[in-house]
Here is the input.
Amino acid sequence: MTDFTPAARVLPQPLFHWHIVVSHGEILCTSEGPLHQALPLWQAGACDAQLASHYLGEWAGKPCGVHHLPIRVDLPGCEWRGLRSLLGVVDEPLFYLIGRAMQVVNWDLDHQYCGRCGLHTEYHPQDRARVCNSCNLAVYPRISPCVIMLVTRGDECLLARHTHHRHSLYTALAGFIEPGENAEQAVAREVHEEVGLEVGNIRYVGTQSWPFPGQLMIGYLAEAYGGILTPDREEIMEARWFHRGQVPEAIPPAETLSGQLIRTFIGME
Here is the structure.
């Protein structure tokens, strides 16, 4: 059971009890974490900067909001931290909350102007949306659905190292769902494109919000039944089969869906 109850509508706007502060893609943190009961910016006289504030929902039964600060202020006892650096550091419900805060701020910043006619957009009076009053285009926060799949072969699983990742982790394969596909079709296509294998017996495991920058990860186990293992070298640097008892230590943490898929396979008999 989480401590957070999200809200998709923006009205009525409550007086926030909890505050999250974002600036230039980072979160303001104290030694107690990224969630503040008193807004430290106001205490430091930074309220002269125009804040864009958004209601996120309730944390522990109290209203919570995020504030975007266009001009970063350095405060004693505080530091600005990237969202990824908090993965596995804060509890999972709190990470989902600050991930939501970052996605709402990014949506607001990215849609100040209409993508159809170029005019300035306004907030919808009730929904979390920005609306163009000229051409009536409404833009809601957008989530990109992705599949992430651990390919198996008996007691072995396929782990890959990605070309563009900074960390040399062995992880599951993943990719975006294309228009017209269902999730299972995307699993089969992505595996074939990335490593040249054919898969079947595709089994759903679970989902995870992944705010880098705004994905919904849909996790699967899939059995290989054909093809020749051939990493595409553009996205996949290396792909290898590992026995469930010899999986390398350099895998994603358990807080990630990829890490959960691998650990699920390791624990299967």
Observations:
- The mean pLDDT is 91.
